[in-house]
């Protein structure tokens, strides 16, 4: 009986220690609760804190695969917190959240150090998709020493990806209302492709960080909008967008 209990305890410790861990940092208790409930649906361990100091204390004591990080915190600016997290734990994927406009310096910092940026308000499908892919791509690993951290190359998406021109109509859908199953179905034209995604043209303005689903015959492909801009010199409103396939 003792041997059986010890084996069971060891198994529980193993699975607990190897569960992917997510840290959520935001000073809004409602957002913390919403994200915690959403992320836990993916069978992930979630820790929530309300300040930058608490976030850094967590990262210094345990490895987190993914960190959702608000920019405006009561004690330390989120951009500075991200910079310190990447120094202490460079393999942690940081996802920046904010509802405010950012300056050029902050945008550059996010581009080089964050795994992703999502504007507030966000939709739950976007959160579930992001955390699924971000957590799956990071290894199960506890704290490295600082020497290993210095040799780690942080994730930076390559901008010079070869693109192939293409003209093909496609349907896509996305959620209209946060947390509700109301969707909008639209048409677009695929204008180019690459190994990682698609370039599309549509009459509907998409925004950065939006999750959309393409209907490609009997198959569905989910993508994340990486950039979007209005196309000038046209008689009707048209928008170009780059979508990373997930």
Instruction: Tell me the number of helical segments per DSSP (H or I, 4 or more residues long).
Output: 7
Identify the CATH homologous superfamily of the largest domain: Response regulator
Q: Can you give the mean pLDDT?
A: 77
Level-1 CATH class name of the largest domain: Alpha Beta
Named CATH topology of the largest domain:
Rossmann fold
> What is the CATH architecture descriptor of the largest domain?
3-Layer(aba) Sandwich
Unreliable segments (pLDDT under 50, ≥5 consecutive)? 10-17, 140-160
Strands side by side in the biggest sheet: 6-7-8-11-10-9
Secondary-structure map:
Layout: H1 2-17, E1 21-25, H2 29-40, E2 45-49, H3 52-61, E3 66-70, H4 78-88, E4 93-98, H5 104-113, E5 116-119, H6 124-137, H7 146-151, E6 164-175, E7 183-193, E8 197-202, E9 211-216, E10 219-230, E11 239-245
Parallel strand pairs: 1-2, 1-3, 3-4, 4-5
Antiparallel strand pairs: 6-7, 6-9, 7-8, 8-11, 9-10, 10-11
């Amino acid at each position: 009986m003792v041997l059986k209990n010890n084996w069971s305890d060891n198994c529980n410790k193993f699975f607990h220690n190897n569960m992917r861990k997510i840290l959520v940092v935001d000073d809004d208790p409602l957002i913390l609760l919403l994200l915690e409930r959403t992320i836990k649906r993916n069978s992930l361990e979630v820790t929530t804190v309300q300040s930058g100091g608490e976030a850094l204390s967590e990262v210094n004591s345990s490895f987190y695969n993914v960190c959702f990080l608000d920019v405006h915190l009561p004690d330390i600016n989120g951009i500075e917190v991200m910079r310190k997290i990447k120094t202490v734990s460079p393999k942690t994927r940081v996802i920046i959240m904010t509802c405010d406009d950012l300056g050029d310096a902050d945008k550059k910092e996010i581009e080089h150090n964050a795994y992703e940026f999502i504007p507030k308000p966000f939709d739950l499908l976007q959160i579930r998709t992001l955390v699924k892919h971000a957590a799956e791509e990071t290894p199960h690993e506890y704290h490295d020493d600082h020497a290993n951290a210095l040799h780690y190359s942080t994730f930076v998406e390559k901008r010079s990806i070869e693109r192939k021109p293409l003209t093909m109509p496609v349907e896509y859908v996305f959620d209209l209302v946060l947390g509700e199953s109301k969707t909008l179905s639209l048409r677009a034209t695929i204008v180019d492709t690459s190994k990682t995604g698609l370039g599309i043209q549509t009459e509907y303005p998409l925004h950065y960080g939006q999750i959309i689903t393409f209907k490609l015959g009997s198959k569905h492909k989910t993508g994340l909008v990486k950039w979007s801009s209005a196309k000038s010199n046209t008689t009707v409103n048209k928008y170009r967008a780059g979508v990373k396939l997930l």
